[in-house]
Structures are given as structure tokens and as C-alpha cells.
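To whoever picks this up:

The nightly regression suite flagged Transcriptional repressor PaaX-like central Cas2-like domain-containing protein as changed. Nothing in the input moved, so I suspect the structure step. Input below, exactly as stored in the fixture:
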Amino acid sequence: MSSNSKKILKKLAESPAVSLYNLKEGDAKTAYALSRSLKNLVKENCAEIYRSERQSYAKITVKGKNKLNSLMLDGETNLVNTNWDGFWRIILLDLPEERKPERESLRYLLKKAGFVCLKNSAWISPFPFEHLFTNIKKDLGLTTEMMIIVTEFVDDETKKFLFETFGE
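Regenerated output under the current build:
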């Protein structure tokens, strides 16, 4: 994904809709590059264009939000602190078969964030990504299908396994 596409997704994520005029500010060369990037994002269903009588607006889609969240995990400068704070983050997933693409995307994001699958749909990590996954949960409307638990207590046998897994 181009740096212009990343910039556009970040801008679109900041508000419900952004005018195309504001997205394409700058010299003609930059405006053209941003225009092409936006067109590609629309083609990939990561953004949508809305037109009114006076102005056109762009809006990020759920797929675009997922893409942006994935990019946040890829960028080294955006990684959260990886020093363990003594808390475990547990995410429980229960998405039905008809939502398989979302389930696979979430599993991918969990792996990228350093989560380990404990049992079927139970994932655990010492890394503080719970806020990212709380936002994803809201964006996808996963009220009961995704549960996020932050806890200090884990039984001794499980703790031993986790310390071996995460190298703590």
C-alpha cells in the first residue's frame, strides 16, 4: 500500500467524512497522486465517495478500518510498549460460519499483535493491544461475538506455559 493511501486512510479514520477538496490540498502533482490513491482505495472497498450538490466527500469503510488497523500493527513506530505490565489480555471469539471472512481477518490481526491461540477461539497476550481490539469490536459491531478480558490472575500451570511461550 502506498504512503498516500496510508495518509488518506488515517485522515478518513479521524472523522465521519472528509471533503475531497481537503484530501487533495497541495500542489498539482501531490493532488494527482492523492486522487489516484483514493481511487484505488475506493476500488478495494476501503473507502467510499459521497456526492452532494456542492461538494464530494470520502468516508472510510469497515474494510478500510481493518486495513488501517493492520497497518498500525506493521509499523514499528506505532507498536505499543512490549514490556510486560503484569496483565494478560484474553480475547474470546465466537463468530458464526457466515462471518468467516471477518473471523479470518481477526485471527490474522491477533497473530500480528502477538496473541497466541490457547483453545479454539481463546487468544492471549501480555501486550497491551486491548484498546485496538476494543475499537475493532465496536467497528464490526461484535457485541457478544468478541469478549476482551484483562486480568492479572492466571493459574500456575497456565502461567508456566505462557512464560515459556512469550519468553518472560
